[in-house]
Batch of 2 targets.
Target 1
Amino acid sequence: MKLTKERIVDAGMAVFAEVGYQNLSMRQVADRLGAHAGSLYYHVRGKDELLALMADRICHHAYEEGTAALDALDALPAAARWPERIEAQAAALRLSLKQHPGGAQLFAESPGVLSTGALSLMERLLRTLLDGGVPAERCGIAADVLLSHVTGFVLQEQNQPAAPPTVTAERYADLCARFPLLMGPLMERLDQDEKFVRSVRLLCAGFTTPPDSGTGARAKTGRPHR
């Protein structure tokens, strides 16, 4: 079968899922394709470009999934509020990262090169935030925070053990005594989907909340800065 950039990316994704970011090599990708490693360089300049192409594929998939989710919102009788549109985009990115083994790590650690997929995700987030009334000076940081949150959330999901660790009754009682807030009712036991939705909504609520003018308050009361 003819060697193409698309086939190389396919093979790269498969190898990456098995060996991870650091251990991926062009030779392994070539072996997966039954080709000589040197022949890959006619299509992809090296590992960094391959990783960037792989990340770009995930981003484009997330963008397409986000578009479908936004179209569904637009079909509702009333126009969706901007936080719901942000939530739809965040959920689409999370799903895309989870569908690719190691996708979150690839998205987070891929070389910092221009990717039309990543740029498209960021551009749409910025437009949604700006149209929703988030102050322009906060939109960039808000979009960065959202993308970082989704990536970190999925990294935790993909690294969770298959089963929670076994804890004896004595050990559990000791933990409750030492960490009453963490082990108590403040930390709701939510499934991952519900936790994700609530976390994105909490971030959206914060994007439009005026920052605390703590410095000014201290100046007015005469309290010293620390």
Target 2
Amino acid sequence: MKEVHPQDSGFWLITQESNVYFPNQNLPFGTAKDLGLQQRCALQIGEWENQPLFLVSELADEKREWTFLRDLLHLSKEQFYLLNRGIELNHFYKTHQFCGKCGSKTAHTTDEWAVQCQNKDCGYRTYPVICPSIIVAIRRGKEILLACHKRHVDSKMYTTLAGFVEVGESFEQAVSREVWEETGLQVKNIQYWGSQPWAFPNSQMVGFLAEYASGEISLQEEEIADAKWFHCDGPLPNLPPQGTIALALINAILEICRAKDK
């Protein structure tokens, strides 16, 4: 990031952790001087409504009316993903101020999103950390498997299974392992479906569809409160919000189930 000039103009992404300053249902627009940002540092990360979009360096104690990123899922995919980029970059820059190799101070590079060690004998360059996580919707005939995670007990929301990919593991292996660990089920015909950046704080959700192979539901009780098979034509529980890859995967499986006998 570099120091903002008073005449710099565009939209400004001001963040705090996974929260965004989003007054009047949009990002603030104008010059740095008009918005009182001329003493801050910023980095252009794209365009918003055909204007430059600047990520502003975070101030930990800044007092604003913040909007949680998840509450902005109603935005277009392009806009939501840009906000994810900003939050992930902000997290990266905050957590990589010192070299992980020699401990010296780092500085932002000018040619790409990275930081580089300022020790001339080291010069180690580090890039934003992206943590891949699989998310999978599972079909058994005309039924879909849905689970209520412990964190969703109060809202009684049922969703897909998900988990982080481990070192030395393919995405497909991660799908099989996570399903087995959380429900005791075996799956087959694992197929890639799509992905979604998920800046909480730096995940990449990689979505799959799979079919039931064998087993009876046996819950990993530390994480899963309940898991059931739901018929595609029957009543469904409270589902994830619109805009999440979880709901998109659920809808994709339901469509396959309903078309199975046609």
